[in-house]
Specification:
It is built from 7 helices and no strands. The chain has one domain (23-131): Orthogonal Bundle (Cytochrome Bc1 Complex, Chain D, domain 2), CATH 1.10.760.10. It is an all-alpha fold and 141 residues long. The chain binds heme C. Residues 45-46, 48-50, 60-62, 64, 67, 72-73, 75, 80-81, 84, 91, 96, 99-100, 110-114, 126 line the site of heme C.
Length: 141
């Protein structure tokens, strides 16, 4: 192989990385490999304010059943801050991850009194646990 071909090959391999698909798939991988027990443990923090099971009332925070795919600030019957309701955020794995990392960075001035946490693995674990327990809106036993 000529030096030029080698460089061309290396560039072709790097292309998907440059295309920016990395963030999402890395997060998907983290979620797929997450420790659900740890996620459940971490969700205890969220649970002081958020139920996840369908049909339970809102608490300090809105019920998070079916939150994935929902526009931020749109659960009926919960009084959101204006900034969250008008944020234009739609909840998916990436926005949820950013929110749990640092709510005030994603939507400055929001009313969720929670600082977030920095561990990528722990956030993935919480998201995985939420997905397995109703955050995707599927009925759970
Ligand atoms: C101290 C109470 C409290 C804790 C703890 C808390 N939240 Fe919240 N959460 C809220 C409140 C209040 C809002 C509404 C914020 C607003 O209106 O600006 C909210 C909003 C949200 C939303 C947006 C819901 C929607 O319908 O748009 C998500 C998602 C969310 N929280 C996830 C979590 C997760 C996951 C955790 C744990 C890692 C957590 N929250 C911890 C109080 C809390």
């Amino acid at each position: 192989m000529t030096r030029r071909r080698r460089i061309a090959t290396r560039f072709a391999l790097a292309m998907p990385l440059l295309a920016g698909a990395v963030g999402a798939s890395e997060l998907d991988d983290r979620i797929a490999g997450a420790n659900l027990k740890r996620g459940q443990l971490f969700y205890m923090q969220c649970k002081t304010c958020h139920d996840l099971e369908a049909g339970l009332p809102h608490r300090v925070g809105p019920n998070l059943n079916g939150v994935l795919g929902r526009k931020a600030g749109s659960a009926a019957g919960f009084k959101y801050s204006d900034v969250l309701a008008k944020s234009g955020v739609v909840w998916d794995r990436e926005t949820l991850d950013a929110w749990i990392r640092q709510p005030a960075a994603l939507v400055p001035g929001n009313a969720m009194a929670y600082p977030g946490f920095a561990s990528d693995a722990d956030r993935a674990a919480v998201i995985a646990w939420m997905l397995a327990n109703g955050a995707d809106g599927a009925a759970k036993p």
